[in-house]
């Protein structure tokens, strides 16, 4: 078989693969999803296991119970079949993450910025939204389609490498492994919208999401101009949340009327 014929066949295969892998996010946005949920869950579980080996877990029972209280209230409002595992990491990073497979982590430092249950719910709702909107699958699929050369399972099972760091970053663990690869603006904004809905349905005050990001802005100091970042600026993020606030408040009032009044502390 000639090289040109082989190349043509490979291109046709790629076109068929990409055309059959189109999916729709919870907000109606078109996505590329090349990997089955089972494989994404396997990657998330593997990554989480490594995280627990590499980063000390908090032993503060009151903090653990508090974080689990908020996380459980959020995940109860989703349609996911995951049995979520939540851990608090004894690290001062202002961060949290959620992974395919139903794995969630909160860094101790976040609790100095998300200072009450409502603000923590805003963060965890956002992170859970990334998973349930398949943002990890979307990013890994785009990297794979762009011929990243990564063989997912082998890379995760191997020793530390640039490829492994890249894959972990695509799953949402960038800052933990020293690679800055944040979610894109569209994915961040989508997670904001969905996360606001989850927290409101659980009975957490969605207005506190605005205060949270104001706190984040104060804690992070100077940031580069928005055009130099793949994250929305705090102002853009707050403006987006405000546009969704009327709907979120209606969900919040309905939740409270149904006696959903979380008391996590």
Q: For the residues shown, what is the average pLDDT?
A: 81
Overall shape: globular
Count of separate structural domains = 1
| Computed CA radius of gyration, to the nearest angstrom | 19 Å
Proportion of residues in helical segments: 55-70%
- SS element count, helices: 10
Low-confidence regions: 3-20, 174-181
- Class by alpha and beta content: mainly alpha
Q: Tell me the number of strands.
A: 5
The protein's oligomeric status is: single chain
The percent range for strand residues is: 5-15%
Order of helices and strands: HEEHHEEEHHHHHHH
Terminal residue distance: 68 Å
Strand order of the largest sheet: 3-5-4
Instruction: Report the biggest beta sheet as strand number plus sense, adding barrel if it closes.
Output: 3 strands, mixed
Give the gist of this structure:
This protein has 265 residues and is mainly alpha-helical.
Q: Notable features of this structure?
A:
disordered N terminus; 10 helices; three-stranded mixed β-sheet; single chain; mainly alpha; 265 residues
Q: What can you see in these coordinates?
A:
The strands form 2 sheets. Strands 3-5-4 form a 3-stranded mixed beta sheet, with helices on both faces. The chain has a two-stranded antiparallel ribbon with strand order 1-2. The protein has helices at about 5-20, 35-55, 60-75, 115-130, 135-145, 150-155, 160-175, 185-200, 210-220, 235-255, and strands spanning about 20-25, 30, 85-90, 95-100, 105. It starts with a helix and ends in an 8-residue tail after the last helix. It has one domain. The longest helix is centred in the last third of the chain and has 24 residues, at about 235-255. The protein contains 10 helices and 5 strands. It is mostly helical.
């Amino acid at each position: 078989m000639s090289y040109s014929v082989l190349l043509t066949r490979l291109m046709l295969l790629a076109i068929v693969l990409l055309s059959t892998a189109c999916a729709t996010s919870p907000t109606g946005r078109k996505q590329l999803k090349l990997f089955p949920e089972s494989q994404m869950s396997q990657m998330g579980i593997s990554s989480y296991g490594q995280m627990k080996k590499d980063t000390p877990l908090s032993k503060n029972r009151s903090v653990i119970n508090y974080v689990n209280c908020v996380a459980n209230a959020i995940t109860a409002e989703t349609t996911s079949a995951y049995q979520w595992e939540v851990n608090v990491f004894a690290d001062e990073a202002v961060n949290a993450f959620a992974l395919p497979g139903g794995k969630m982590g909160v860094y101790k430092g976040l609790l100095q910025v998300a200072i009450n249950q409502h603000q923590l719910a805003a963060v965890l709702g956002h992170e859970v939204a990334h998973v349930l909107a398949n943002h990890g699958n979307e990013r890994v699929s785009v990297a794979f389609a762009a011929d990243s050369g990564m063989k997912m399972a082998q890379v995760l099972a191997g020793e530390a490498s640039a490829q492994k760091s890249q894959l972990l970053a695509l799953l949402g663990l960038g800052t933990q492994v020293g690679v800055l690869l944040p979610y894109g603006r569209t994915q961040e904004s989508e997670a904001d919208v969905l996360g606001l809905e989850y927290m409101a349905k659980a009975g957490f005050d969605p207005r506190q999401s605005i205060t949270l990001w104001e706190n984040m802005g104060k804690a992070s100091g100077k940031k580069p101009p928005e055009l130099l970042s793949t994250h929305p600026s705090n102002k853009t993020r707050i403006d987006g949340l405000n546009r969704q606030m009327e709907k979120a408040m209606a969900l919040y009032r309905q939740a409270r009327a149904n006696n959903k009044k979380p008391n996590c502390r």
